[in-house]
Fold:
Amino acid sequence: MSIWALLVIVGILLIVLHIPPGMIWAERKVAARIQGRWGPTRVGPFGLLQPLADAVKLLTKEEVIPRGAERPLYYMGPLLAFVPGALALAVVPFGHDMRVGDTVIQLQIADLHVGVLFVLALTSLAVYGLAFGGWSSDSKYPLLGGLRSSAQMVSYEVALGLAVVAVIMSAGTVSIREMVLAQQELLFGFLPAWNVFFQPVAALIFLVAAFAENNRLPFDMPEAEAELVGGYHTEYSGMKFGMFFLGEYVAMTVMSAVMVSLFFGGWGLPGLTDPHDTSVGNALVSAAVFLVKVAALLFFYIWVRWTLPRFRYDQLMRLGWKVLIPLALANVVVTGLFGVL
Amino acid sequence: MDVLFLVAAASAVFCSLMVVSRRNPIYSAAWMMGALASVAVVFALLQATFLAVIQVLLYAGAIMVLFLFVIMLLNPTPADLAREDVPAGQRVLATALAAVLLGVLGWVFLGGEPAAAPPFADRPAPVGFGDTAYFGSTIYDEYLVAFELISLVILAAIAAVVLVGKRRLLIGGIEARAERERQLAQARARAASGPEGRGAERTAAEEEPVHAH
Structure:
């Protein structure tokens, strides 16, 4: 492994670990805006140091562990909620290649030839954190939350996977890197050739299913405060609760990054980035474009959370099984027909 | 590579032993995940990347979650778990069969003469072996008919499961509706024969729970 690959890994890790604090701040600020409040203003300028204060609070808080908790699984829950999601970022390209001297550096940790399947496999493991955490707490609300999470995430994974199948079919590859490269041209001279224009239905299904996979409102059934206190993490406190929190934001970042790569041209923006240029400047601009796109999707997550009410559990299941999955299947068939014609 | 294989294989064996020896099914499920992940690593070491990922995606990500869901739904209490309801002699029989299996495997692996060269050394893996495209063309070009036949068999199994699972619900529903209609007819007959005012009142009172269904 070259020193450059190591630098890329460290760089991506640093970026990813800085997104959750930013998200905590943004979530508070945007929520406040939507509700006509100020949000945090006292800790640092614009309350920017609020996440730091939150982290200090979580780290120094007393840990309360229920007496009947199944310790090994109770400890594993927060880890499993965080680690697989973070690993999935390894196959997402953060920017265009850059050439330094004679070496070409990919701003991507690993270009696996199973690409997007790897992401699906790892994000599908996040459910264990919620399920184990919920079960091992020895309390009825977490148990219900864990149950809901396992049913919900398995259900929406199907729709998510089928949406991705349609994209794979029209792109002709499973490598995320190749998919992004294929989206760098222009359509009719003005429209970026992003998959969202070829696969609008798949993009919509992916978006909805991503919300459900990440347990975000309007699909945050596993932790519905009004019904289940805090759902699967009711009995967690201190940094273990913080890990669940972190895991949720990292999972959202992963989903946004994958969605940007699959549907919104990845690091490319016609006019700003040049797919044939491998200079360092172009690579840095492309990385910035990528991060801005991810940030836009993350903002969308927050926006939706504070605007839409929560679904009822049966409505969620009906939407997943009776609307999204048939729609995704039909989309696959239509994509196949276009491919044959 | 060999070190990685040994670690993954040992981990798979250890996890499998833990799966069958845990009393609490949740822990069995957790160890099962470990076993599945270890086997995925073995697949990846064999260049079967696609299989490795599918192993995690389908088995660890979907099937085990369903297992977990059922276990959590039943949520056995410690009293349930402490109960011994193994049929007499099952342990002895199982141990004997395991010993036979172990003996056969040991005989196969250790008994023969060591080969001069590894088997299949003269037939290297084809280009692209194990990646998604190769896997797809193998299934959908070379073994299309077999693959579709298997799909049919699985579909039949799913249909059968639904029928078995829902039969009681289906028949129960039909009986319940017949019962409701019978009650409704009785109530109508009484209303028609009885005195005008009281009959109408009683019919309304009797029909209400029927409508509530």
The first helix of chain A runs from residue 3 to 34.
